[in-house]
Amino acid sequence: MLYRFKSKAGGDVVMLQPNGKQLLEILGKDPAGPGIILPEQMPGALQTLRDAVFEEEAELQREIQEALARDDDTPDPDRITLRVRVTPFIELLQYSMRENTPVTWGV
Q1: In the chain, how many domains are there?
Q2: Which of 43, 56, 69, 75 could be stapled to 82 by a disulfide with Cβ–Cβ 3.0 to 4.6 Å?
């Protein structure tokens, strides 16, 4: 299953099911059905996503420090981070906010 996020302000952002579901759960949206983010909700959504990215990066740094302290293998440096996965969606939100148009999915 794919999630297709649409806005008149930019091209569609398509995500595979696990990544789209994670993004919607971070935003407190129901991943099972169609949805919308209105322009007035976008500043909060952007901050929520940025906070989640910061949290994941801080957790990764903690994991690396703990692994180094134990003289163990560090986490996979080539893994795809939340920052990489949500950046296109964040850009779509920013364009949509400037154009005062909603972002929708599943419709």
Answers
A1: 1
A2: 56
